UniProtKB/TrEMBL annotation:
Name of the protein: Glycoside hydrolase family 125 protein
Family annotation (Gene3D superfamilies): 1.50.10.10
InterPro entries in alphabetical order: 6-hairpin_glycosidase_sf, 6hp_glycosidase-like_sf, GH125
A Pfam family of this chain: Glyco_hydro_125
GO molecular function: hydrolase activity
GO biological-process terms attached to the record: carbohydrate metabolic process
Keyword Signal attributed: yes
Annotated signal peptide: 1-22
Highest taxon in the source lineage: Bacteria
Keyword Phosphoprotein applies: no
Length: 491
């Protein structure tokens, strides 16, 4: 056994798995697994004690969010559900948002949680449910503007990177074989990293009417997005991006000298990595290509209505149309049990990868992102497939069931998949079962985790993962807004 493996084993046996050492100090291939029983905190009359930081320790405070938390808690009859909502919904604001001014404009750097870096995907999803309240709190609106401005700066710096540092701090991954810079935490090319900022900027604009974010940096970022997407269609060559890493973890590096699997240039966009940060098996990741189509069309609308940049808007629309046509031709295949389904990955040569991963964008989450209609029969076939043991990364056990992925491995269910099942459900009993499962698999902590063991939720990864926490709050608010308070109160 190598010294490194002995060191990791010693850490796990000594209780580091419970989170006593920051996750970023432990090699990513050995994600710490908490197995320490947690006693749910109650006061002397049995009420659940809030797990939020003390007021003075919260990184960002919003009056309207506090008001909304109190309002929702008063509506919910189940005290455990109300407690979970109170802990989870503000977790991004409480613990990950670093707001300041840069050159006289808002600038917000957002940690993922236990990893002190900003992923374009995570940050765009973490603050998403707060946008609906932006008009009721100028401070909140300014913070959200800062997130968008920071994301645009990141895209200008390197459109191929997935995660960024707060300044030129270097990274544990700085020796990766790719064009690393000190401002980058990680440089994995993932289509969705460029889609989430467009989705957030569009939503912010539609809610607030504030077009000030669509300045020169916005235009520079859009030009980078277009160039990168076109490069990764690989029509003329393989493009400039390569990535390799020295690692024991196969999905943390790529084949073919860093170029990834062969891709037939059929109009789809190559994604070397998935939203889980795992390498793709086949290069055309279908959920992310769907996400690119809707994101490009949102950008085109902004470029037309705000910037009056008809040529750039046309380039976005033309690319979206081309990818959409390629999806119609290459994204589906026939399954012997479920009929026509969407593949997870394809290569344009005729190969299909039939599975789903919990991370969003996923096949399950296509309607959540607005990429397909929820009544699309191919989606409904696909939904039945991915939520079954015919999906190799679907796990079902004594504690719960759901989709995981190779990022954590066998038997580990991601709560995100359960939330996506609820978001995309048209059946009240199914939604109720999802909420019941989420409540039963938090290991008594009052928070969501990255993943939990299908037979024992006290075995979980990442006790501080802000995206999943905020997403849980988003789900509860949506269900109430959709008239399903009685459903929640029947739990």
């Amino acid at each position: 056994m190598t010294n490194k493996k002995l060191w990791v084993a010693a850490l796990l046996l000594s209780g580091v798995a419970s989170g006593t050492i920051a996750a970023e100090t432990i090699p990513h291939a050995f994600a710490p697994l908490s197995e320490v029983p947690f006693t749910t905190p109650r006061d002397n009359v049995g009420r659940y004690i809030s797990q939020r930081p003390k007021m003075e320790d919260r990184l960002f405070q919003s009056d309207i969010i506090e008001k909304k938390i109190a309002e929702i808690k008063a509506m919910l009859k189940n005290p455990y559900l109300a407690w979970m909502f109170e802990n989870c919904f503000p977790n991004t604001l409480d613990t990950t948002v670093h707001f300041r001014m840069l050159d006289g404009k808002p600038d917000t750097f957002v940690y993922t949680g236990d990893i002190h870096a900003m992923w374009l995907r995570d940050s765009g999803a973490q603050v998403w449910p707060y946008v609906q309240f932006a008009n009721e709190d100028p401070k909140l609106k300014e913070m959200l503007e800062g997130v968008i401005r920071r994301q645009l700066l990141c895209i200008i710096l390197d459109p191929y990177a997935n995660a960024f540092n707060d300044g030129p701090k270097g990274s544990e991954w700085e020796t990766d074989y790719t064009a690393m810079k000190p401002e980058l935490h990680e440089r994995k090319w993932e289509i969705d990293s460029l889609c989430y900022p467009l989705r957030l900027a569009y939503h912010y604009w539609k809610v607030t009417g504030d077009a000030s974010i669509f300045d020169d940096n916005w235009l520079k970022a859009i030009e980078n997005v277009l160039r990168t997407f076109k490069e990764q269609q690989r029509k003329e060559d393989k493009g400039p991006y390569r990535f390799q890493r020295k690692t024991e973890r196969a999905t943390d590096t790529t084949i073919n000298d860093g170029w990834g699997a062969p891709a037939n240039p059929v109009g789809l966009i190559v994604s070397i990595f998935r939203p889980s940060d795992d390498a793709t098996t086949l290069p055309f990741l279908i959920p992310s290509n769907f996400f690119a189509v809707t994101s490009l069309r949102k950008a085109a609308e902004i470029l037309t209505e705000v910037n009056k940049k008809q040529d750039l808007a046309r380039q976005c629309t033309d690319l979206a149309d081309e990818v959409e046509q390629a999806l119609k031709k290459y994204a589906t295949c026939e399954h012997p049990k479920y009929g026509t389904v969407y593949a997870f990955e394809v290569d344009g040569y005729g190969s299909h990868m039939l599975m789903d991963d919990a991370n969003v964008p996923s096949l399950l989450a296509l309607p959540y992102l607005g990429d397909v209609d929820i009544d699309d029969p191919v989606y409904q076939n696909t939904r039945r497939f991915v939520w079954s043991e015919d999906n190799p990364y679907f796990f079902k056990g004594k504690a719960g069931e759901g989709i995981g992925g190779p990022h954590i491995g066998y038997d580990m269910v991601w709560p995100m998949s359960i939330m996506m099942k609820a978001f995309t459900s048209q059946n009240d009993e199914e939604i109720k079962e999802c909420i019941r499962m989420l409540m039963a698999t938090d290991a008594g902590t009052g928070f969501m985790h990255e993943s939990f063991h299908k037979d024992n939720p006290e075995k979980f990864t990442r006790k501080w993962f802000a995206w999943q926490n905020t997403l849980f709050g988003e789900l509860i608010i949506k269900l109430i807004d959709d008239g399903k308070l009685d459903l929640l109160n029947s739990l």
